[in-house]
Amino acid sequence: MSEKYDVIVIGGGPGGYAAAIRAAQLGLKTACIEKRINKHGKPALGGTCLNVGCIPSKALLDSSWKYLEANEKLAAHGIEVGKVKLDVAQMQKRKDDVVVQLTNGISALFQANKVTWLQGTGRLLANKQVEFTANDKEEAEILEAEHVILAAGSVPVNIGVAPLKDDLVVDSTGALEFDSVPKRLGVIGAGVIGLELGSVWARLGAEVIVLEAVDKFLPAVDAQVSKEALKIFQKQGLDIRLGARVTGSEVKGKKVTVSYSDAKGDQQETFDRLIVAVGRRPVTEELLSADAGVSLDERNYIYVDGQCRTNVPGVYAIGDLVRGPALAHKALEEGVMVADVIAGEHTQINYDAIASVIYTHPEVAWVGKTEEEAKASGEAYKTGVVPFAANGRALAAADAEGLVKFVVDEKTDRVLGMHVVGPQASELIQQGVIAMEFGSTIEDLQLMVFSHPTLSETVHEAALAADYRAIHIAQRRRKK
User: Fold this and answer.
1) What is the pLDDT of residues 237-254, one digit of tens each?
2) Does residue 51 lie in a domain region?
3) Which of 35, 387, 437, 451 has a 20 to 30 Å separation from 162 between CA atoms?
4) Catalytic: which of 361, 452, 460, 472?
């Protein structure tokens, strides 16, 4: 007789492990299926994010920024350090140690909450049955559940014009494992992943060329912010080429030659290594049997409603498998929401108030509507923009590039969106998230007292600027 659970979660990434922990907290007998074997040959929870995504990339971003600071930034503070030595092996070891600490932490949380971790592969069958194949076995067993949560995540998209090749042409996972700094590094894709990974190796001394097929830089970002970010990144030495469509690649020896076309015609560049970062696709093909009954759209994402129910009663899907941005924090909150819904509690995510972040330096972060979206809606709006150059704390830290921007409904005074490029943008953007979640007006933010000196004062000034009330920048007066 097969084992039966109240809830089976397929996938142990941020969405899956959060769903499993919350379901167990609510008294449901819960199992989580996760197949990942880490680089040390051991089973690991945490999915792409903790193992080969968010966490290791941030570890390398922080390490590489410290190296850059020691090399180029400390002298201005009166700190002389002499010749700085780079130890890539130690940098990689530190990254791996952080990953192991966090993934082991998820395992400990499973034990504490009595979640059964099934180490292997899961596939949804008809009638909410789950086919489970353990990592150390060839034969599958059939599990049953009252509720199944699909949380298998996504994988990098590969492109035929630049197939992966050993450690020369790599995806985002391979780009985290370089054992030396390439002299010339190519990156296909100027999105979040491409910019972050390109930044890591550029800071460590690589000449980085980023090839982006579309003509607009960061098209999902507010145009004023993306323009400012592009200017800053180019000043840092990132060679970002827009409208550059890759048409082929060739590996010869230890070099990669990339062919692409742009407004100037056919071009070629030769690199020591090439990163392919053109997006990710949902893992749905291996997840569902032919008779599972779960509906997919034309891009193989799973159809769900506002609370992540699929068209099959008792089956839910979350995270990168479904509509919306592929963000770990979105997946995590969807996992918690689904567990609550299963337990009979009412929970709803406000999808309009989920922030996105690019962890370059300076960071880029945004939530809600861009000015372009507000303008396209036809409704009256206003904006407030303040540069970090007007902020005492940013200047004191010698980190004053970028700006904060609010987009506000002219009639209701409600905050429609917030956009930041600058220091600690990932932290500052949460103030916009909170404001939008509580339906704040821009006046609410104007009337708050912000500590001085802090970066957060830039948020306050931008709120004031929406009504021409900013104190620390010169503004034209409102026409009467």
Assistant:
1) 999 999 999 999 999 999
2) yes
3) 35
4) 452
